[in-house]
Specification:
Blueprint lengths: L19 E2 L6 E2 L7 E5 H6 L5 H5 L5 E5 L6 E5 L15 E5 L2 E3 L12 E8 L13 E7 L7 E9 L4 E11 L4 E12 L3 E3 L22 E2 L2 E12 L5 E14 L6 E5 L8 E2 L2 E2 L10 E2 L6 H4 L13 E16 L3 E19 L9 E19 L5 E20 L19 E21 L4 E23 L13 E19 L5 E12 L2 E2 L11 H4 E2 L2 E14 L4 E13 L2 E6 L4 E6 L2 E14 L4 E16 L3 E2 L10 E2 L8 E2 L12 E14 L2 E12 L2 E2 L9 E2 L2 E11 L5 E8 L7 E6 L8 E5 L4 E9 L1
Parallel strand pairs: 6-9, 13-20
Antiparallel strand pairs: 1-2, 3-8, 4-5, 6-7, 8-9, 10-11, 10-48, 11-12, 12-15, 13-14, 15-16, 16-21, 17-47, 18-19, 21-22, 22-23, 23-24, 24-25, 25-26, 26-27, 27-28, 28-31, 29-30, 31-32, 32-35, 33-34, 35-36, 36-40, 37-39, 38-39, 40-41, 41-44, 42-43, 44-45, 45-48, 46-47
Length: 776
């Protein structure tokens, strides 16, 4: 389904301009492609200044993308299907594809994305056309190329609430008639939007190490980001094309956990607590205030892997993403080969008790390198039968690590053999190889009826080693000793078929019915505390699979002034990979959460009232429930009368969530908006855009703690811009979340907390941006 905010342009004839998509890895019109796909244009991204995945996801119903402060680095959800972020050993159920390169690590949510030609969101299982496979969907981003003429832009802006300054620039064009280049850069610097109220406190755990409160973290996240892209395109003739793109990004801020706060506390409490001690500077409501104190001097001394060695909180994430796309048109068939490279080096230190008591300071980081190669052969015969054949290879090496202090007692004892005071330092290394082959047959039964069928076979092998680099001697009775490891090999294979019947009753209408499947491999949990009792089998989790189908209708009516897009869908998911917090060790572990179903309806409409006024609206209904999860973990402090089986001790208690909704899955998401652009002089136009979005109530995670429940809410975005008719210059005032809704985007048990102590990441509050742009 096309995006509610895609805001297609109108053609010179007064109708809606055709929207193209690469949902099947070739240029097709959105009207013709039998896929539920949302398309966000470059113009729409510019209207609201969207420059990262979180902002892009907010523009599309039933899509949520949020940075995370541990684990795999991010939460990416479509229709409520996501992979938990607390465990580095798990890939995302929704894949990100950037210029043909697939990435399934949540850390990509940190990177900035700008100078984009288009964003496409493919909803539901995607087995054939992107990367190795995806059970929940794919978000595809295509950056702009050199073009046929030299052109570029310079853009600068200021966001008043968080005092964010940014500048962007790009230039590109043909160097010769066969070679073109484009260079683009963006820099931003921000003071932050969350106020840290933490004050000095006596340290109840280490009396000789008083707590200083918020030192350099009065506002979070105080961030700085620099990103650049170079694109080179070589077309020596009409048959061969080579496109090379490389994107480099660096993001830094003043606290890894700086986007998280306590959103709910134990019954009747107004201050959050850690291990029974209260922080008088904190509150227990979702707002723009948080209380997170710096470490005391004992804990901060020579903190391993910290940025300055003094235990100061920080985030530092660097990445490189490159693609080389080679294509050759033989006439009857075309060959396309995409080589991909992704390198991530991310590290950060934050406070994981989320109070001024600084009991759980922790380093979380990851170094990942992914090489991929995809080869695709596509036929273009004049006859009724055509085909797509291809193969995919990926080599992924990952090293994830954690450095922590708390978890076992009220104070971490000094180890005389080292010059730092920590409790544990586990590392996880994974060496994964993926090989897959895929094929599709396309049969034009008649001029208006087409049947397609295809399958992807995937074989994956992973060698995984978990070990402790360091374990404090006081904990060695419980921790796995350094020099020992939990290691083994995982081998999996999967067949993912799909089939689609497409009918074009008229040139302006498409009806389709599709059966689709998807797959994501299993793995091994990388726990923050690696115990002697842990085994490879005990930490392993199995693959996640999806199957189901959808029926869709697309049309362009009323002289191409009205566009409709609707679909019904039903998908079953087996072995959903879910992560839960072990209260005893404050460590996350991934398990396969039985089965779930998503079923629903999506409808969207665009109406070009006049050449100056565009109306749009969308309605989505999504019923996402667990159909079998009888051994789900209990939330912290859950009682027997609330459904928790309390007969099995303190760490293995379970509840039955069969029939309950998935987390991050609102039943209703609806939106409506307009764009109005009129000339007021022969040198000046005024453009006004407004969009209101309503999201019904949902749980902030799967375990359904009362404090993680987000009520239904509405938010409003708007912009006004003054611009020349040919858009040479533009001055814009942009408002995002003008209703200042601080909605819970994700939530979980607070480490070290009491019953119903919940932490969460909130929607960023009201943003007001003044922006100027000059194009040349």
């Amino acid at each position: 389904m096309a995006s509610v905010i895609a805001m297609p342009a109108y053609a010179q004839t007064g109708g809606l301009e055709s929207v193209t998509t690469t949902a099947r890895r070739q240029e097709e019109t959105l009207l013709d492609v039998p896929v539920a796909v949302s398309v966000v244009s470059s113009e729409a991204l510019g209207r609201y200044g969207a420059n990262n995945l979180s902002q892009i996801g907010d523009m599309i119903p039933q899509v949520q993308i949020t940075r995370a402060t541990s684990g795999n680095g991010g939460i990416i959800s479509i229709r409520g299907i996501t992979s938990a972020s607390g465990d580095p050993g798990i890939d995302t159920a929704v894949s990100i594809n950037v210029d043909g390169v697939q990435v399934s690590r949540g850390y990509i949510a940190t990177a900035a994305f700008f100078d984009l030609a288009q964003v496409e969101v493919l909803k539901g299982p995607q087995a054939l056309f992107f990367g190795k496979n995806s059970p929940a969907g794919v978000i595809s981003l295509r950056s702009k190329g050199p073009g046929n003429e030299w052109e570029g832009f310079v853009k600068a802006g200021y966001e008043f609430r968080a005092k964010e300054r940014f500048v962007e620039a790009a230039i590109g064009g043909p160097v010769t008639d066969k070679f073109g280049i484009r260079v683009a850069m963006r820099y931003s610097d921000m003071d932050g939007w969350l106020h840290n109220t933490a004050g000095p406190l006596a340290n109840p755990f280490e009396p000789n190490s008083p707590l200083p409160g918020a030192t350099n973290n009065k506002l979070t996240p105080a961030s700085e980001a620099l990103v650049g892209r170079v694109t080179m395109e070589f077309r020596p003739n009409d048959r061969f094309t080579a496109v090379f793109k490389v994107l480099g990004s660096r993001y830094q801020d003043n606290e890894l956990t700086g986007i998280t706060q306590v959103v709910s506390c134990a019954d009747g409490q107004v201050h959050s607590q850690t291990r029974g001690f209260f922080d008088p500077n904190s509150d227990c409501i979702p707002d723009k205030y948080r209380s997170v104190g710096a470490q005391g001097p004992v804990a901060a001394t020579n903190y391993p892997l910290s940025k300055k060695g003094n235990g100061e909180y920080f985030t530092d994430s660097k990445s490189i993403l490159a693609s080389l796309d080679l294509s050759y048109d033989f006439g009857a068939v075309s060959l396309d080969a995409v080589t991909g490279f992704y390198r991530l080096d991310s590290n950060g230190l934050g406070a994981y008790d989320y109070t001024g008591l600084a009991y759980f300071p922790g380093i979380n980081g990851e170094k990942t390198t992914i090489w991929s190669e995809e080869v695709r052969l596509t036929s273009q015969y004049d006859g009724p039968v055509n085909f797509v054949l291809g193969g995919y290879y990926e080599s992924a090496k990952r090293n994830s690590f954690t450095v922590g202090r708390g978890g076992f007692s009220n104070a971490v004892p000094v180890d005389p053999a080292v010059d730092f005071v920590i409790g544990y330092w586990p590392e996880d290394t994974s060496d994964r190889e993926t090989m897959s082959g895929f094929g599709q047959l396309l049969w034009d039964i008649t001029d208006t009826l087409q049947l397609t069928g295809g399958v992807r076979y995937t074989k994956e092998t992973a060698d995984i080693v978990n070990q402790n680099v360091y374990a404090n001697p006081a904990y060695q009775g419980a921790l796995l000793p350094p020099g020992m490891s939990v290691a083994g090999r995982i081998q999996e294979n999967n067949w993912s078929p799909e089939a689609t019947l497409t009918w074009h009753p008229t040139a302006d209408q498409t009806i389709y019915a599709a059966y689709r499947t998807g797959y994501k491999s299993g793995g091994v949990s990388q726990t923050a505390i690696l115990l002697r009792s842990n085994t490879f089998e005990g930490l392993s989790f199995g693959p996640e699979t999806a199957k189901g189908g959808e029926i869709g209708y697309k049309a362009q009516l009323a002289g191409n002034r009205l566009r409709l897009d609707a679909n019904l869908y039903y998908y079953e998911f087996s072995g959903l990979q879910r992560s839960s917090l072990d209260i005893a060790t404050t460590s996350f572990r991934t398990l396969n959460a039985a089965t779930a179903v998503t079923k629903g309806f999506e409808l969207e409409a665009f109406f070009l009232v006049t050449d100056e006024l565009m109306l749009r609206g969308a309605f989505t209904y999504n019923n996402a429930k667990y159909t079998d999860w009888g051994n789900a973990p209990c939330f912290n402090g859950q009682r027997a009368d609330e459904g928790c089986d309390v007969s099995v001790g303190t760490t293995a208690r379970t509840q039955n969530l069969t029939g309950q909704p998935l987390g991050l899955a609102p039943k209703v998401s609806t939106s409506a908006g307009f764009t109005y652009d009129i000339p007021v002089a022969n040198w000046l136009n005024v453009g006004i855009t407004g969009d209101v979005k309503y999201v019904s109530a949902y749980w902030g995670n799967d375990l359904q703690q009362p404090g993680s429940r987000q009520k239904g809410y509405a938010k409003f975005n708007a912009s006004i811009r003054l611009h020349e008719p040919d858009d040479t210059w533009e001055l814009s005032l942009i408002g995002r979340n003008l209703t200042n809704e601080l909605a819970i985007l994700t939530a979980g048990d607070k480490p070290g907390g009491a019953r119903n102590d919940v932490t969460g990441v909130l929607e960023r509050g009201r943003e007001v941006i003044l922006q100027a742009q000059y194009r040349f």
